[in-house]
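Lecture notes, part 5. Sequence design as translation. It can be helpful to think of inverse folding as translation between two languages: the language of shapes and the language of residues. The source text, in structure tokens, appears below.
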């Protein structure tokens, strides 16, 4: 997993220089209608780091192709400049490279309800799954792009 220093080196610090960060790295992704039809929880638009648009699209399409998309019940966000829960570091959400899904049923430090196949799709495409973290920091809702 990328360290905070690596993320700041790549993107700059969105807490300090939000406008330059957003101008360079962020975009509005219009979620394709076929994805929204298959996954009703998906919003029409997602404000995200431009580097995750293609892998997120690929991941969602693979989940749909395998029939695993039905596990997604809620979209719970992407970009949010904030600290990590449980630490003082900057959240991956502050860089727009993480998404949260099914937060109510996969809470921070709680149980993980995703199937093994669902998580494998994310991992195989290059995402880190918060479901894999230790019990003290487990975050089953969290999927973070690491492929840059």
């Amino acid at each position: 997993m990328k360290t905070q220093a690596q993320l700041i080196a790549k993107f700059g610090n969105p807490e300090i220089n939000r406008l330059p960060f957003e101008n360079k790295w962020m975009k509005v992704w219009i979620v394709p209608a076929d994805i929204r039809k298959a996954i009703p929880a998906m919003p029409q638009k997602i404000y995200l780091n431009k580097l995750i648009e293609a892998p997120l699209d690929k991941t969602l399409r693979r989940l749909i192709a395998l029939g695993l998309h039905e596990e997604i019940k809620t979209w719970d966000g992407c970009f949010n400049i904030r600290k990590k829960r449980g630490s003082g570091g900057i959240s991956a959400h502050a860089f727009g490279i993480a998404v949260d899904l099914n937060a109510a049923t996969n809470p921070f430090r709680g149980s993980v309800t995703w199937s093994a196949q669902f998580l494998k799709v994310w991992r195989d495409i290059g995402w880190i799954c918060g479901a894999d973290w230790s019990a003290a920091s487990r975050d089953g809702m969290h999927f973070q792009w690491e492929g840059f």
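The translated text above is only one of many valid answers, since several sequences can fold into similar shapes. The CA atoms of residues 119 and 129 lie 7 Å apart.
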